[in-house]
């Protein structure tokens, strides 16, 4: 079993067992052997759920996801166990990051390996996030369904061989694989951030010192317009305003708007409730509630050409954390001693980032009265 599979197995076991039957009592010898095995584990760390009651309340009460349906997404085969329940969809980077999708494509699991990021979410943002998601059903913030953390000593944790924290979130690309099987056009997607900031990979020596592979990981640009009715646009902007206000109040920067575009199936695409679109727009949790159409399920453009989804991702970088403070100092010294480029998206102020982010989002929308 390779590294990815062992990490996946530890995630699956944590989610399934935490919601299953009560553990049976074990003998002292069995417990000792389990502790010995856990300590010498390199990749399959012992994980626990952080604030499980809060996330369970969001899933059940506000997102309409039953415990049985949630667990089913993390089960494979008749015994409901094994790494096949999660499929790796991202490469294992130098930082040890992982990215998985459940077999049914409903959920994604993303590691949060940096201490500054997972400590910010756990210590500063988790409670405001839970409260915000409970009171803003049309929020564009990605729905985080569980937060997993490693506990107990192990060689894998000591040497950083496996990520110690993971978030389970809903998959805004849910339905793409089924669309492929039906022979529909490939879904397009963009990870959008304000591009007016200083990006060393792009701006130093015109990007000549960095590989194309590295530059390709920078924020995308959407060279088009989302054609919306005034009502659709106001709903979109209202959600963006509320969500980014929460993030700015807690010093978050560098988040992105993940935008998905699907070709509408026919001339009746102006109405998401049309039968032609029923196969493209989810009608079951975790994508709903609220009742479609929403930016989570799919909003039809006012010109009838496309269906769009959108979500705010990666809001774990906070200006008050040590890593962020170090990067801010480094960029200030760069601007003073070497070349005046201005702040990066990770070193600017939360209010400045919010302003540019909202300007970017408004810039890609065209209102059709």
Describe the 3D structure.
- By secondary structure, the protein is of the alpha+beta class.
- The strands form four sheets. Strands 1-5-6-4-3-2 form a six-stranded antiparallel β-sheet. A four-stranded antiparallel β-sheet has the order 7-10-12-11, with no helix packed on it. It has a two-stranded parallel ribbon with strand order 8-14.
- It has helices spanning 3-18, 28-39, 52-62, 67-72, 115-135, 155-158, 176-181, 200-203, 212-215, 230-249, 322-337, 350-363; strands at residues 47-49, 86-88, 99-102, 107-111, 144-150, 165-170, 188-192, 226-228, 252-253, 256-263, 299-300, 306-313, 317-318, 365-367.
- The protein has two domains: 3-171, Phosphatidylinositol Phosphate Kinase II Beta (2-Layer Sandwich); 177-367, 2-Layer Sandwich (Phosphatidylinositol Phosphate Kinase Iibeta, Chain: A, domain 2), CATH 3.30.810.
- The chain has twelve helices and 14 strands.
- Helix content is 36%, strand content 17%.
CATH class of the largest domain: Alpha Beta
- Measured between the Cα atoms of the first and last residue, the distance is 57 Å
- Secondary-structure element string: HHEHHEEEHEHEHEHHEHEEEEEHHE
Q: What can be said about the biggest beta sheet? A: 6 strands, antiparallel
Could you give the count of β-strands? Answer: 14
């Amino acid at each position: 079993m390779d590294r990815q599979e062992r990490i996946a197995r530890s995630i699956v076991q944590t989610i399934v067992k935490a919601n299953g039957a009560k553990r049976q009592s074990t003998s002292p010898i069995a417990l000792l052997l389990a502790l010995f095995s856990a300590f010498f584990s390199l990749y399959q760390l012992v994980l626990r759920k952080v604030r499980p009651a809060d996330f369970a309340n969001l899933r059940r009460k506000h997102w309409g996801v039953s415990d049985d349906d949630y667990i089913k997404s993390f089960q494979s085969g008749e015994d409901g166990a094994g790494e096949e329940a999660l499929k790796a969809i991202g490469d294992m980077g130098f930082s040890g990051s992982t990215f998985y999708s459940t077999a049914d494509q409903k959920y994604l699991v993303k590691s949060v390996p940096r201490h500054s990021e997972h400590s910010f979410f756990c210590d500063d943002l988790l409670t405001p996030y839970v409260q915000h998601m409970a009171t803003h059903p049309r929020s564009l913030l990605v729905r985080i369904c569980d937060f997993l953390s490693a506990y107990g000593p192990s060689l894998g944790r000591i040497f950083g061989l496996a990520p110690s924290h993971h978030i389970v979130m809903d998959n805004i690309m849910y339905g793409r694989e089924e669309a492929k099987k039906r022979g529909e056009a490939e879904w397009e997607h963009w990870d959008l951030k304000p591009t007016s900031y200083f990006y060393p990979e792009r701006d130093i020596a015109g990007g000549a010192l960095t590989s194309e592979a590295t530059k390709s990981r920078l924020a995308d640009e959407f060279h088009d317009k989302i054609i919306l009715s005034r009502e659709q646009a106001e709903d979109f902007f209202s959600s963006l305003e509320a969500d980014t206000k929460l993030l700015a109040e807690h010093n978050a920067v560098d988040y992105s708007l993940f935008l998905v575009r699907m070709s509408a199936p026919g001339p009746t695409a102006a109405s998401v409730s049309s039968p032609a679109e029923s196969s493209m727009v989810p009608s079951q949790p975790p994508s709903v509630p609220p009742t479609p159409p929403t930016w989570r399920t799919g909003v039809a453009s006012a010109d009838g050409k496309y269906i769009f989804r959108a979500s705010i991702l990666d809001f774990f970088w906070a200006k008050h954390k040590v890593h962020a403070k170090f990067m801010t100092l480094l960029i200030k010294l760069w601007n003073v001693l070497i070349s005046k480029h201005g702040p990066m998206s990770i070193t600017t102020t939360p209010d400045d980032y919010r302003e540019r982010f909202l300007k970017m989002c408004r810039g890609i929308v065209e209102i059709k009265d």
